[in-house]
């Protein structure tokens, strides 16, 4: 049945995720263990080993931190929040970091009463993930534009447009798979988590990208109030 199919799909995603987690965390642990053994032999620079071990442990912390977002209880606190205010807050937060890298963020917000029913921190996390990805795609600097529109009476569209490196077609379908990253220090979790949060909010997203031109991410979020029936099954 449809339900069984969904269930087995969920299980395979869980299995995939578990394998990914095991792999991602075993690597830094193996490395720390190796350096501890080296230190026991008294060989080499202790200071240097300590530094590497600390950065390996930092990496584990970052990965676990992101995974904990996924593990959050299904029933989160949904409240009316002004999407424009949330965007402005995140832009202010990341703007200074952008300036340091010659990145400017322009905004086009012209929506009356842009209220969405959401868990504020989760939605902010989504905005941060997308803007950070755009910033990381523009090492030479450039512009990120963010648009907020109402496309239907009860639907907002938030668009993130960058002038970054873009995504080659052959890896487009891998974006959002757990731990898929093209970055040396990436976790490959941001996209997947963002998509999940958006879907938990009854929304959807699209990704379009062209190598050397840039990337466009569209997020659609409903403005409707929470449906209690959905809440109790944790299935929003
Ligand atoms: P991470 O940022 O840790 O690599 P994400 O899940 O956020 O993990 O992104 C996965 C991959 O998607 C990135 O490594 C990058 O290759 C690609 N990507 C995401 N957003 C963009 C973007 N705006 N421009 C170019 N590539 C992107
Ligand atoms: Mg990212």
UniProtKB/TrEMBL annotation:
GO terms for molecular function: ATP binding; phosphorelay sensor kinase activity. GO terms for biological process: sporulation resulting in formation of a cellular spore. It comes from the Bacteria. Its EC number is 2.7.13.3. It is an enzyme of class 2 (transferase). Residues 20-225 form the Histidine kinase domain. Keywords: ATP-binding, Kinase, Nucleotide-binding, Phosphoprotein, Sporulation, Transferase, Two-component regulatory system. It catalyses: ATP + protein L-histidine = ADP + protein N-phospho-L-histidine. Signal peptide: none annotated. This is histidine kinase. It comes from Ammoniphilus oxalaticus. The lineage of its organism: Bacteria, Bacillati, Bacillota, Bacilli, Bacillales. The chain holds residues 70 to 305 of 305 of the full protein.
């Amino acid at each position: 049945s449809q339900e069984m199919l969904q269930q087995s799909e969920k299980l395979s995603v869980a299995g995939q995720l578990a394998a990914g987690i095991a792999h991602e965390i075993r690597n830094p642990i193996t490395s720390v263990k190796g350096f501890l053994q080296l230190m026991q032999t008294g060989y080499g620079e202790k200071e240097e080993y300590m530094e590497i071990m600390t950065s390996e442990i930092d990496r584990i912390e970052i990965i676990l931190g992101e995974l904990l977002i996924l593990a959050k209880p299904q029933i989160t606190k949904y409240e009316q929040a002004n999407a424009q205010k949330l965007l402005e807050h995140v832009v202010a937060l990341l703007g200074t970091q952008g300036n340091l890298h010659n990145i400017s963020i322009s905004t086009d917000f012209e929506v009356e009463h842009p209220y969405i029913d959401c868990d504020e921190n989760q939605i902010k996390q989504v905005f941060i993930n997308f803007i950070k990805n755009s910033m990381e795609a523009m090492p030479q600097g450039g512009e990120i534009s963010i648009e907020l529109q109402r496309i239907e009476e009860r639907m907002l569209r938030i668009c993130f447009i960058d002038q970054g490196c873009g995504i080659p077609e052959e890896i487009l379908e891998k974006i959002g798979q757990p731990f898929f990253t093209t970055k040396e220090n990436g976790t490959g979790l941001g996209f997947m988590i963002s998509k999940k949060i958006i879907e938990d909010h009854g929304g959807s997203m699209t990704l379009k990208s062209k190598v050397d031109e840039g990337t466009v991410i569209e997020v659609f979020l409903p403005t409707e109030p929470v449906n209690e029936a959905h809440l109790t099954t944790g299935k929003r």
